[in-house]
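Annex B. Sample input.
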Amino acid sequence: MVAKLLRACPVCSFITEEDRCPRDGGETSKDWQGYVVIVDHAKSEIAKKMGIDVNGRYALRVR
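Annex B, continued. Sample output.
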């Protein structure tokens, strides 16, 4: 079994396995570092600081 490579969107930082971001349609990057999982974006201070309005996995740095 081969694990899929995770990629991150440089625009919204959303982490996905796809070549295109499902949130904004931009091309994703293999070059990213660290991630945060947002479970409740409405109550999360981190989500507010990062401008996140949907729960999910987000990269901390995308190149």
